[in-house]
Amino acid sequence: MNKELSIVMPCLNEAETLGICIKKAQSFLFKNQVDGEIIIADNGSTDGSQDIAKNLKAKVVPVKEKGYGSALRGGIEAASGKYIIMADADDSYNFEALQPFLNELRTGTDLVMGNRFKGGVEKGAMPFLHKYLGNPVLSFLGRLFYKIDIGDFHCGLRGFSKEAYYKMDLKTTGMEFASEMIVKSKLNNLKITEVPTTLKPDGRTRAPHLNTWKDGWRHLRFLLLYSPQWLFLIPGVFLILLGFITSAIIISHPIVINNIELDVHTLLYTSSSVLIGFQFIVFYALTKIYAVENNLLPKSERYQKLFKYLNLETGLIIGVLFLIIGIGLSYFGLSIWKHLNFGELNPSETLRIIIPAVFTILLGMQIIFFSLFFSILGLKSTND
Fold first, then answer.
1. Which of 47, 95, 250, 344 is spaced 20 to 30 Å from 280 by Cα?
2. DSSP letters of 168-211?
3. What predicted TM-score, i.e. pTM, was given to this entire model?
């Protein structure tokens, strides 16, 4: 029989606090007359947590695959509720104060996030690095990369509808599951809101499962990998603009800054910057195609336009034009050398021709090869 609400708690050796969390959740359901159930997603506890849950009439769902995300996915998929509210079983979140989450879900919100900074973080409840560095920085990057108006990306207390959960199509198994849920909700145009919640020191005597640096990196890595625009496209455009502008200036004349002269040797680096920037853009396109075609990112109108404007014919024309320019510059450089009877050259003058010649030949060949490969990848998309 389906319930209105399933309260899901991931569990790995939480015997010290699991009982009080279940009792608080039961109290909430009873006092607010909510038709609900309590799901304990057990990830292999060896301290008797399962017996505690069963004795308190909670439903225990064994999850073999290790990881925070794996445990939650197992519990959520076994839940019968229309709505899901999830939180850790360490007694740091108040399971008796879930009504604001349920109210928002009842109005049609797909994902309701708790915000501990608005509700109140008790002294000692959050490590210094998490409170003032990790959470603010990762939340800022999440808002920047994905334009999500959420102030606390990593609050473990959150609610969502079962229907929205399946639309998210979550894949990760570790702590980055928390970030994936928000990002996938945004990418699938789900409605997200935030409500204040509180955080108090957990009731365990053992160390938490969360590893500050390892799990922080996993969150950051996820945010970057799911945003190829910020990982590849924006750095690529920046490198191309920087390299092109500085190269154009040096080709016309050396740059002098406080008696430091930037000449043809610097030109080698600035022209290389353009090539590296182009490689970034290539990786952006390839990453985008891979992510969309493997259902890691939703297919958007921009993605469809990618194949409309970036096609084999356009790439071949641009690539050949660069090749012609490079060959023309090479011929011009050779004619200068010939004029000097193939004798000694002035590097400051000739390298201003030869470096752009080599650069345009290399860029032309890269554009041609990329266009050929890109057109192969685009066959499936254009035939859909």
1. 250
2. H-----STTHHHHHHHHHHHTT--EEEEE--B---S-SSPPS--
3. 0.75
